Amino acid sequence: MANSKRLEGEHSKSCVKLQAVAKGVVVRRQARIASHYMHALARLQVTVRVSPINSHELTLKFAIVSSTSPVLVTST
């Protein structure tokens, strides 16, 4: 009986550790995405300051391709 309870306790600890690892993965992914967006915004600000253009042209050049990967699209 005591051996069974000890195994249940070890199983519980293992589950908690696994949940912590999974949570860490999610948090790191969110941080990476936030950093990516901040970098894209900084690039956009540099573009605006270096070459003054009107806001309509800027809207056409900057497009967010997907929810996780903003891309600066250059028109030819």
Quick summary:
The chain is mainly alpha-helical. The protein has 2 helices and 2 strands, in the order ααββ.
- Portion of residues in beta strands equals 5-15%
How many strands in all?
Answer: 2
Number of separate helices: 2
Number of domains: 1
What layout of secondary structure does this protein have?
Blueprint: H1 2-50, H2 55-61, E1 62-64, E2 70-72
Antiparallel strand pairs: 1-2
Protein described:
This protein has one domain. The relative contact order is 0.09. The radius of gyration is 23 Å and the shape is rod-shaped. The protein is mainly α and 76 residues long. Strands 1-2 form a two-stranded antiparallel ribbon. The chain has 2 helices and 2 strands. A hairpin with a 5-residue loop joins strand 1 (62-64) and strand 2 (70-72).
Note the main attributes of this structure.
74% helix; two-stranded antiparallel sheet; mainly alpha; 76 residues; rod-shaped
